[in-house]
Specification:
Two copies of one chain form a homodimer.
Chain A lengths: L2 H11 L4 E4 L6 H10 L3 E4 L3 H15 L4 E5 H18 L3 E7 L15 H5 L5 E4 L3 H16 L5 E7 H5 L19 H10 L4 E5 L7 H14 L2 E3 L7 E3 L13 H8 L4 E5 L23 E6 L5 H12 L22 H9 L7 E5 L7 H5 L5 E5 L8 H11 L5 E6 H4 L5 H7 L4 E7 L4 H9 L6 H6 L9 H7 L4 E4 L2 H13 L4 E6 L2
């Protein structure tokens, strides 16, 4: 057995079922091994950012890593932006990146570059294979680094000759590093800190667990503290039967305002919230300077167990509250922000997966969807735009029976639109709603926040008109049926119909 | 004057006229400075790979760097693959990459990553700005590194606050590092080595200079040596009146065969040729093991002067030979490889710029175009696919009066297809001919070369059908008119018409 086959067989034995791939010459022996073993589902992306974003989406829903197959330093770099998002999400992803054969490395061939250097800033774990015999063991070490709580991006560099060489040895599945436990002391201190004027900030895996969400809200009810979550998270369970956990807003002034009233903060699987960017005259830290911060559970610790212990100590019961009202479909009319949010939230079926790269628009969908049937909400976690289309594809590969609805800003969509082709090829039930405002709307606000008084050159750099993008044509060009909608009631009907149909659909919502 | 404005004004004073940009929040002060000064043409790309590929294309034709404006580590990474190509081409490019404000760096904000680490593998020169007062000086140091012979990729990291801060100082234009001179001794040794059985390998700026091409061919005629060029080059001048310089083929066995007869090689602005990839049972070095190699001019030296001295020493006159026959338009019929090449080469007007990302198809265009009117040929230099559409855009920005014809493989086109929108927005006369064979054809050969016997999973990973891509729809979605062609004579007419019309056009050539 060659090195490539030993890696494929070892990963499969550990439960790795999917390989998202955009291979090149240096990965041909992996393509061959995947072909001969037929152990994994191979999903092709036409661009590496699709591959890595899909692996992230898969991981968020499957709760375990897929493999990616990438080609040398430029191929890895093409996938790096979505690996950045995956890292910030703590999504488990295992990258297999082909490198030139060891004997070829010294020759400065056209595709030679510093691959170790290129992967390091976008990986939590990096290793370069050194022999066919140890390649599978290295891969499993990376797998364990990726799959251990809370999740990480691991990258194994695979010199091509180690894949060809015979002598591959299947490696056993290593034990995962368990989530760290929180001390009774920490729980006691957190209990003491909570009360009116305090905020319980919950993140990470806590947000993925309905019981933990109810406990967190129950603790807030019992102590008089508030409960909040970071602005963007790997996955949040929400909808009817679950408490609404307010998220920290993106705009700096709204974020400062939302946190201004607190003098104690207790953190569970998250860190002290900071501004997305620095702005002249604004602080980087969002909590008031006088606020005392206390960590109940680090990201690598078991926040769910910590919350359970905390609930017991403060005598809190799981939240039992009134559901938010069911969202209602909008009347016929133009697609303003509220109508857009109503049209989407009211069309969500039970079990829907929402992928949120709406950026400036559709910000009310989350609020309204609190009263919808239970759903999962996946956000852009690292601020690197171009995550939505691939994330939706990967989530759908993980959960073929759950419809995916992607809230997609138009500017961001253009970074990785190639993912629509993968959605079509794999027959994924993804409904992409393009928020067509035809500008980098968010940057107009940012330009004002740095004190500029924008003239025509600046505005032109933030404008997506001249020519207008036609997302329906783009979608059809990649085999995805598409429809343009200008009316709110029609948008509702289009989404409601699409989520019931197999296969992808793109709806270009013309915003007013 | 703030730091951002001092950079813009200093770069402009040195002759920098164009900024290719995909900015984000941390670059808003640069957008503002570009807006207020109106000194540079700002060209927006909808994806960073478009920005960097266009900067490369611009540099190849303008002979000087444009600036790029990129956003943080993920934004840089999105542009890295085409910077890799630019580095391998020795194209002068100056990247301005925004970073978080210094005071914000310690907070692990969502978009934080190791930016210095991310840029290093794809840059020849890197610096991080340290104050508003010195920012322009740093930028000009980078500009000089980029613009000095033969060209380099320079990256300046710009913490956002240095752009806002007052105290910017315009920096003088530094002197460029001159190309190194070649010793008389080296010229004498080269003269001695040349003769039957020797090959003169010319690369770099030599290929851009008609007089040097004629001298090189004249030296070959006078000495009985052969003259050849690397397979992929930044820019080659060719066509009627110029000698045909054979290039080293891409496929390993053809490359070995082409070089098998030589026992001496003299290198001018290039290095010893190596295989693109390592293959089992094949060498990395392409020249025979017994071949003696001698460097007349390193890449950083003046190969043109060296060739002139060499010609004088061996008594060679500039080449005067018979032009290759003018290419003829093909008869009506299916688009096989020869008909495709005929259709394109016979439609090229004088002064055309050819962008070659044809990969497996259209390989005869270069041979046939040797008899066409003079033209410039730009190739994919670093093997990182996705260069064609942006490179064509940048070349056209540099040379608005010269029609650009892009030979574009379909699989490669999908990496940076967003560049079509930039072509439309800027009204660039670019004719993109998509070679629609609907597969990663080159990888099928590579799979066989590593000894695989591909089954359905492997073939599926190299196949672009299911669903078929419709490039005409994709082009129209970005405002570029498009036409699908299945007949060779019709393709000729379509290209001949398009190059005479302003603005971009995409022709999807359905290959048989």
């Amino acid at each position: 057995m060659n090195g490539a086959e030993s890696v494929v067989r070892s990963l499969h034995a550990a439960g790795t079922e999917v390989c998202f791939a955009n291979p090149g010459t240096s990965e041909m022996q992996f393509v061959d091994a995947l072909d001969r073993t037929r152990l994994m589902r191979c999903v092709l992306g036409l661009f590496e950012g699709v591959v890595t974003g899909a692996a992230d989406g898969y991981a968020r829903m499957a709760g375990k890593p897929a493999a990616t197959l990438l080609h040398l330093a430029p191929g890895f770099a093409n996938g790096a932006a979505n690996l950045h998002n995956a890292r910030k999400a703590r999504s488990p992803v295992l990258n297999l990146v082909g490198e030139h054969a060891v004997r070829h490395l010294g020759y400065d061939a056209p595709l030679s570059a510093d691959l170790s250097g290129a992967v390091a800033p976008f990986s939590d774990w990096v290793k370069t294979g050194s022999s066919a015999a140890t390649l599978a063991r290295d891969a499993m070490e990376g797998w364990a680094a990726a799959a251990s709580h809370p999740g990480a991006v691991a990258t194994l560099i695979l010199p091509a000759d180690l894949g060809w060489d015979e002598g591959g040895v299947i490696a056993p599945t290593p034990a995962l590093r368990p989530a760290g436990l929180v001390s009774d002391d920490s729980v006691a201190r957190a209990a003491e800190a909570l009360g009116p004027g305090a905020v319980l900030l919950i993140g990470g895996t806590v947000l993925e667990d309905p019981q933990s969400l109810k406990l967190a809200a129950g603790i807030a009810q019992a102590t008089g503290a508030a409960v909040m979550a970071p602005g963007a998270n790997r996955r949040v369970e929400m909808g009817a039967g679950l408490p609404v956990i307010p998220r920290i807003p993106y705009p700096i002034d709204m974020a400062l305002e939302a946190l201004s009233g607190f003098d104690r903060a207790v953190l569970v699987e998250t860190v002290e919230p900071v501004a997305f960017f620095a702005y002249p005259g604004r602080p980087s830290v969002l909590l008031p300077p006088s606020c005392r911060t206390l960590t109940l559970a680090e990201r690598a610790q078991d926040g769910r167990a910590a919350l359970a212990a905390l609930a017991e100590l403060v005598g809190a019961k799981p939240w039992r509250g009134t559901d938010a009202p069911r969202p209602v479909a909008p009347q016929a009319g133009p697609l303003n922000d509220l109508a857009l949010s109503q049209a989407i939230s009211s069309a969500l079926p039970e079990g829907a997966i929402i992928v949120d790269e709406g950026i400036t628009r559709g910000r009310d969908v989350g609020r309204l969807a609190a009263g919808a049937a239970p759903l999962s909400w996946l956000a852009i976690t690292g601020g690197s735009i171009g995550i939505g289309v691939p994330l939706a594809a990967g989530a759908s590969v993980a959960c073929p029976d759950r419809p995916v609805v992607a809230l997609q800003a138009d500017g961001s969509a253009m970074y990785t639109l190639q993912g629509l082709w993968t959605q079509a090829r794999e027959g994924l039930n993804v409904t992409t709603v393009i928020f067509a405002n035809r500008s980098y709307e968010i940057l107009k606000g940012e330009l004002l926040r740095v004190g500029a008084n924008p003239g025509p050159t600046a505005l032109d750099m933030l404008d997506l008109r001249r020519p207008d993008l036609d997302f329906c044509a783009l979608a059809r060009g990649m085999g995805v049926p598409a429809q343009r909608v200008e009316d709110a009631a029609e948008l509702h009907r289009a989404i409601a119909a699409s989520v019931c149909e197999p296969g992808p659909m793109l709806i270009e919502a013309m915003l007013c």
